[in-house]
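Submission sheet (multi-component)
Chains listed below:
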Amino acid sequence: MKRIELLSPAGDIERLKVTLLYGADAVYIGGEKYGLRANATNFSLDEIREGCEFAHKLGKKVYLTLNIVFHNEDMDGVEEYIQEVVDAGIDAFIVSDPFIISYIHEKFPDVEIHLSTQASTTNYKSVEFFLKQGVKRVVLAREVSLKEIKEIIDKTGIDIEVFIHGAMCTCYSGRCALSNYVTNRDANRGGCAQVCRFSFAVLGDDKKEFTFATKDNNLAYYIGDLIDAGVRSLKVEGRMRSLYYLATVIGTYREIIDRYYNHSLSDEILKELDERLARVANRAVSTHYLLGEAGSDSQYYTGRNEASNQDYLGQVISYDKDKKLVKIYERNYFTKGDYVELFTPSGERISFEVEKLYDEDFHPVDVARHPDNIYYIYLDTDISIVGYSMIRLLHH
Amino acid sequence: MKVLVEVASKKISRYVDSCDALLLGLEKFSVLNSVTFSLDEIENIVKSYPDLEIFVKVDKNIFNDEIDEIRHVLERLEQMSIRGVFFYDLALLEFKQELNLSLDFAWSQTHMVTNFRTCDYYFKQGVSYALLSKEITLDEILDICHQSKIKTIVEVVSLPSLGYSRRKLVSNYYEDSGSVGPSTLSLLEKITNKHYLVKEEDNGCGFLLDEVLNGTGVISSLYQAGVCYVLLREEGIDDFLELASDTKKYIAGKCLDTKYVEKYKKLGDSTGFFFQKTIYRVKK
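Outcome: structure written.
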């Protein structure tokens, strides 16, 4: 039996590399055209090629989003673009438009087609329709329950991908044009302005604000159930998320999945891993529809409820074993005496107190107060510390 | 070009002289219809009003436990002399093909019916009509009409629907605030000073712009382009029957009566996206 895939977003080439190093089996990316994050960094053709080469050397995969709702004008050049990205080495397209599905299936039968969640597929009968059109995998609507997911797999045998972590839409994907009407930004062509997180006044109740913003999705406690249900891929949302966020979330889910397979995932460990996920969260979380109806505790009602995260202290550039110095690229203020944790792509974790701290010119300092600067932290360890390891604050 | 009316009343006799075709919401399976009809009621309407073309709207997202019932619905509708079925979920198209149904289908995926090539894809799959999205421009609509083989339907008057959620947003709001109230909330977006409605029903919550889409001024262009039906949605529109009747006469006169366009300026100046293109890249 195939092991379940952990699928990560990647907004640029650096995030692609980091997330694969932290344990993702595959990444999904957006090109410069036709993806639903028109305002993300996105990948040029050269970067797609570089990302595919990097992933394939690790035995991993790259999927490209081509999931806008096409207007007439968007069709110009799409065939050439598909050819170019196939040549660049992508392993699958994530598509919602059935015409595009039929085109790819006809011209590139060896390239997998994954049906985007934008198609809001909620039942086995519509999966049967897409299966006949050449779709290999379906990213189900986020509105389906665990029971329904299992039933769809049992009845169709198709590969199913499920969102396990990250931001949620209020409406069915694809069935929302709020952004178009409120901001003139086309939600279904990558311009979504997240109007569902805007604050509205309730007429007749002057004191009340109203948002219909959702809490984030977190299915950490149900990974085993999803594996047992026969799900093929677990997807993390967030092509615009930071390196630190991806490293933490992907690293944590990697550990949950591996521990589940090797029977070492106790309730206590799962709780600890979930707390780790909470440290990078900027919204409260919910399981939304997984266990049934998304209830009143799955959304916010007033204003934006987002916290900025100051835990991330810096990214490791290198470790000098002889001098016992970790060279870091600082992201947030910290001081001597702080208790921190260094974690590596392979899952090693080292907790320690910052005893000695130096600036870029090796002058001793008490405080690292300038984000984007280089600092050195003294650390005596035998553990292999490589680039793209990260340091976070445990407590001051 | 014919006038298709989405009804907001069960009294069908009132529509007989004012339109060519009716769009009826189906009990349990249509969204954002203030009145819906059972299969038996639809059967009676078809028999009682043979001069009216009847379309049935089955446009909710379908879940596994509804599949058997949807099959039954389609088999019943196949036995009636209806003009067609408006569908959203692809499970319906799968059934049409699997059961070899002769029912005409109208692709009605609200915000996703936006280009001629996908229209043609559905045409090849046996779909006869496409209800074009409201979020494309008049030029794009005309282009689809010229380039696709599918028969087109264009919504010209309505309180436009903007989105649909499975969530019970209004009930949740009351639960959170410890209050009770009606199933529809009126909202004001303060920056743009625009009004919206959130309407909760059994299938979830729909969002509507609380401002009439007035496409009466583009009907002439749609007629010239060969659009098959113009859709007028009754919900929330004052003096609706007069509007429908006038529209029918306007089209019968081949859209030459300038008084019609003048008269219906009273619906307001919101022309939706007919003359306004959306953007999606906001970074330099």
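Remark: The CA atoms of residues 82 and 103 of chain B lie 8 Å apart.
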